# Entry
Amino acid sequence: MANEVIAIASDHGGYEFKEILKSELIEYGFDVNDLGCHDTSSVDYPDYAHALADTLKNGVVKRGVLVCGSGIGISIAANRHPHIRAALVHDALTARLSREHNDANVLVLGGRTTGIEVAKDCLKVFLNTGFDGGRHQNRINKMS
Ligand code: RB5
# Structure
């Protein structure tokens, strides 16, 4: 069976994190669809949030990772898309809850606000935690 593809994107503020998290994903056995950016030149985070949302739209690629400086702008932009539940997380607890309660399909991190080891932890927890369903499903249904 083919490896699952994870989409990843960042602006310049998240570029270094993106490169490290991409290596982690490859090490875990995922294929990575890197949507940029590709260096630290200044870019606009909505362009990358929209590119990742477009990639998840047809359901073939189901999960993604976004990084900007704070994680705030890129998560706001991604959440404009009805099929995206992008969760800005800051530690393993919020990463776990984003999956268990919110069925987040996009992990968002701040490259200037979170340490890289914490970010790697968040990634691991996000990838390995299931959705609890039940009452949480009802709440998610009310979002759309
Ligand atoms: C870019 O300087 C910065 O504004 C961006 O990465 C992000 O933090 C926005 O929310």
Summary: Residues 15-27 form the longest helix (13 residues). The beta strands are 5-10, 31-34, 63-68, 86-88, 106-110.
